[in-house]
Every structure is written in structure tokens, then in C-alpha cells.
């Protein structure tokens, strides 16, 4: 494909924007970094040969109807449930993502949330910054010990396994997991015990961390019934996708104390977070920071570039999802 028109929907780290612009002469960057919205995205699909969106761009089926100039969608991110990939494929568009390069950063953030919610660090920081700290006392902000507690993982893909290693090696945590796709034994994590159902994990884990893709059958995987299967002393961590958890049911469980707490990085309908959730002290809430390290964001950009370059050269892109 000679000199494709390329639209990038959000700002990228300068290094990778520069690399993109040096490889392709007609790149349209989003200078003010505002979301393009449905109209802007539809325009991009009509005007560009390649569009490079990310998780904050919703690309439902209707955006692909009526024909598109775009033949390549290179998602900046591993999760692609914001793109109707079947509709994109029907419109003749190749879709790629960025697996692998954000595994360690995201597992680090899941561990961060687990520690933060167990050790009540959000509450402590709010209290101190608000001028409310009255000094050390034996009963002040007492949380839960992490070392040696059981870590339950739902979805043992790359990120789930990276978190399992952190828990097992760093915190001596027994690890149990459920994975609906993983039929084989996992020689890379021989100390992790595979269980047949999500419920079995929920019933024995002290910390439950979600690592399944969003959308489809995983929508509200953690509903009221499953939340009720968790121990009242257990914590839920979600760095996967917001729709994997039924937010209303979670708010009810946290309010009633039927689970001890939650550490969340992703939300249904983000960036709008329900007031009821924001008010809860036993919820640690981060703004979708899973992959937010300099090194990882540069690696993600480079992988989008590799995919685009392969497509333009007529080769199979390395991370094609549709
Ligand atoms: C992804 O890549 O899917 C993340 O959610 C963005 O960091």
C-alpha cells in the first residue's frame, strides 16, 4: 500500500509518535488528545487507510456500515472488546492488538491494588492529606495480612500467570485458579491449583483477581450470586474490564460488608464512576492505569507500528485478531 493515510485517535508517547511519523508521511495525530467520539471515528474510517484507536474509542458495528476507506485498525492495547471485530472483519478491515508487552506492568498494578485494599492505604492517604491523622495507635487503620493468604485467579492468561508468580514467589501465597479455555496442565506454574469452576475459586480465595477479556460471556461474570460466594473477609481485584463485574451488585456487597473490599482499575461506562462507589472507603479506585509505565506504553506503540508496517508491506501482521 503506497503512503497510507494514518489516523491516531489519542496522543502516544513522543518517541513512538516520532517513529510513526518518520516511517509514514501522512500521519494525522490528535493534537489536543480529546476523544474523537462516534462522528470523529466515523470520519476517520472514511478518510484514512489505517486507524490506530485505543480502549477509550468505542467502535460498534454501526460505525463500519456504509463502507469505509480504512483497511487496517491497529489497536493500542491488548483488550479489544471496544471494537466489534466481527463487523470490522465483514467490512474487510484487518484488526490487530498489542499482547505480551503490558503483562508485567498490569500484573504489578493488580498486586498494587491487592496490597492497597488489604492494607487500607487509600483510606490512610486520604486521612493524612485531609489533616485528620491523630498519630500512631494500635487500632488505627488495621488491615489484612497478605503473605500466606490464598490468591484466586479467574482467567490464567499471561497477566493472570504474572500475578500468580508475584503472589507465589513474593508473598508465599497458595494460588488457585479457574480458566474456562485452559484445558492443559501449566508446567510454568506447577504450584498453582486449577479448579473446575469459578465458584470453587471464590469459596476458598482470600483475594480474587480477574483476568478475563471483557464482553460476551464474561459480561457480569461477577454478579450478585458470585459475589455472595466469596468469603466475607475476601477482597476482589479487577484490572481486566469493568463489565466483568456487575457494579451495582459490587456496591451492594461492599456496603453490606458481605465482602471485605475491592481494588478496581476498570469500570463499566468509564470514565464515569457511580457516586455510590466513589463514597465507599473499602474500595480502592484507580483510573485505568494497568499498562501505564513509560516502558510499556512505548512498547505498545512499537507493536502497533510493527503490525501496521507488516500490513502495509503485504505481510501477515504479528498480532492479528480479525
Ligand atoms: C489494554 O491494553 O487492554 C489495557 O486495558 C489498556 O492498558
Give the SSE layout:
Elements: E1 5-8, H1 14-23, E2 26-28, H2 37-47, E3 50-52, E4 72-74, H3 85-90, E5 94-96, H4 103-119, H5 121-129, E6 151-154, H6 158-171, E7 175-178, E8 192-194, H7 198-204, E9 207-210, H8 224-229, E10 235-238, H9 247-256, E11 261-264, H10 275-278, E12 283-285, H11 294-313
Parallel strand pairs: 1-2, 1-3, 3-4, 4-5, 6-7, 6-9, 7-8, 9-10, 10-11, 11-12
Helix pairs in contact: 1-11, 4-6
Given the helix and strand composition, which structural class is it? alpha/beta
CATH C-level category of the largest domain: Alpha Beta
The total beta strand count reads 12
Instruction: Report the span from N to C terminus.
Output: 19 Å
Describe what this molecule looks like in 3D.
With 322 residues, the protein is an alpha/beta fold. 35% of the residues lie in helices and 13% in strands. It has helices spanning 14-23, 37-47, 85-90, 103-119, 121-129, 158-171, 198-204, 224-229, 247-256, 275-278, 294-313; strands at 5-8, 26-28, 50-52, 72-74, 94-96, 151-154, 175-178, 192-194, 207-210, 235-238, 261-264, 283-285. Helix 6 links the parallel strand 6 (151-154) and strand 7. Helix 4 (103-119) crosses helix 6. The protein is globular. The model has no long low-confidence stretch (mean pLDDT 97). Bound molecules: (2R)-2,3-dihydroxypropanoic acid. (2R)-2,3-dihydroxypropanoic acid binds at residues 55, 77-79, 102, 290-291.
Amino acid at each position: 500500500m503506497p503512503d497510507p493515510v494514518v489516523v491516531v485517535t489519542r496522543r502516544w508517547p513522543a518517541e513512538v509518535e516520532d517513529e510513526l511519523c518518520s516511517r509514514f508521511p501522512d500521519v494525522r495525530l490528535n493534537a489536543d488528545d480529546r476523544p474523537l467520539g462516534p462522528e470523529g471515528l466515523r470520519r476517520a474510517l472514511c478518510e484514512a487507510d489505517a486507524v490506530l484507536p485505543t480502549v477509550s474509542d468505542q467502535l460498534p458495528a454501526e460505525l463500519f456500515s456504509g463502507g469505509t476507506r480504512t483497511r487496517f485498525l491497529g489497536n493500542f492495547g491488548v483488550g479489544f472488546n471496544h471494537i466489534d471485530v466481527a463487523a470490522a472483519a465483514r467490512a474487510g478491515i484487518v484488526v490487530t492488538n498489542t499482547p505480551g508487552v503490558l503483562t508485567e506492568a498490569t500484573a504489578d498494578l493488580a498486586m498494587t491494588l491487592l496490597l492497597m485494599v488489604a492494607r487500607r492505604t487509600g483510606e490512610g492517604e486520604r486521612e493524612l492529606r485531609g489533616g485528620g491523622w491523630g498519630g500512631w495507635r494500635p487500632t488505627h487503620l488495621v488491615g489484612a495480612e497478605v503473605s500466606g493468604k490464598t490468591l484466586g485467579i479467574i482467567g490464567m492468561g499471561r497477566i493472570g500467570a504474572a500475578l500468580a508468580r508475584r503472589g507465589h514467589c513474593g508473598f508465599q501465597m497458595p494460588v488457585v485458579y479457574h480458566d474456562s479455555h485452559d484445558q492443559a496442565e501449566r508446567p510454568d506454574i506447577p504450584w498453582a491449583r486449577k479448579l473446575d469452576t469459578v465458584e470453587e475459586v471464590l469459596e476458598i480465595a482470600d483475594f480474587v483477581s480477574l483476568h478475563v477479556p471483557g464482553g460476551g460471556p464474561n459480561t457480569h461474570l461477577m454478579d450478585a450470586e458470585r459475589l455472595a460466594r466469596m468469603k466475607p473477609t475476601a477482597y476482589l481485584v479487577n484490572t481486566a474490564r469493568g463489565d466483568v463485574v456487575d457494579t451495582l451488585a459490587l456496591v451492594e456487597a461492599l456496603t453490606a460488608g458481605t465482602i471485605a473490599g475491592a481494588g478496581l482499575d476498570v469500570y463499566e461506562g468509564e470514565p464515569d464512576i457511580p457516586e455510590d462507589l466513589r463514597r465507599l472507603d473499602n474500595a480502592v479506585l484507580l483510573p485505568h492505569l494497568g499498562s501505564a509505565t513509560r516502558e510499556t506504553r512505548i512498547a505498545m506503540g512499537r507493536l502497533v507500528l510493527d503490525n501496521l508496517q507488516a500490513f502495509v508491506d503485504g505481510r501477515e501482521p504479528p498480532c492479528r485478531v480479525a
